[in-house]
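Entry 12.
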Amino acid sequence: MRDILSRVVVTGDHYANEMHLAPTEVHSDERIVDCRVSPIQAGKAHLIVEVTDVTRRSQITRENALLIQHGAGRQMIRQLAHEIKNPLGGIRGAAQLLDRQLEDEGLHEYTNVVISETDRLAALVDTLLGPGGPPNKQPANIHELIEYVVRIVEAESEKQVAVRRDYDPGLPLIAVDRDQMIQALLNLLRNATAALDGQGTLTLRTRAATNFTISDVRHRVIASIEIEDDGPGIPPDMQDSIFYPLVTSRPEGTGLGLPAAQELLSRHGGLIEFESRPGRTVFFVRLPLEQTDVATDG
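Predicted 3D structure (tokens):
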């Protein structure tokens, strides 16, 4: 800052730029400020410095980009479902008819392969589309849901990771569809556990945030669920597209977990955000405490 002030004094030029402020004891998160320095002549004053906190404005801009990405992803899913699912039904029906006409028992193996593979592809399309229908919301303890998901992930994984919990005990019950919320959290925790590959720490954090805007709707209070890992981070060239279907950095990944989770949160009026760098990746699940039913496509 001293260099900037000195330069403006010497050159007489105006300065305007965004600055990133590192976390402090007062502010635990990084902040973004808009800094403007202008030369003036007013008695002993030579400079006027304007500093505006634009952290939330930058976050809203990013949220809007995520919502646009989610909308584009849903459109891709509809097109995939239309182009793939209809022909699959015809292929499966034809294979069944052919199977009944075959007299050679050895040939049934091939028709069974056709039928099983079409069923697999149909299941893949269903996964892309996600659970249908509006959420069946009931009051739930979000911490109980998180712990339920942790037990599932720990049972699935051969490599155990350390789990650190930092819960806000003051969070009230939240009206959610239990099955849909479990599926969304499960997708996020599976990704975090896979990124750690048995080494590192998974941190689960909950907080209440006030006057929070999601999709141009300001909420008096929301629940924020943070899933943090200290793994290698998301590759920079993928960070702008991770919520698109079929985008993944893992050879065994399907690229369906994050789009499905984002879709399920959108049905609750919520949003998933993230920030990632090597050594720290955090997914933020933003969930309004006072929810209204969100219309979904059937």
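Annotation: Helices lie at 2-11, 55-101, 108-129, 142-156, 178-196, 257-266. The radius of gyration is 25 Å.
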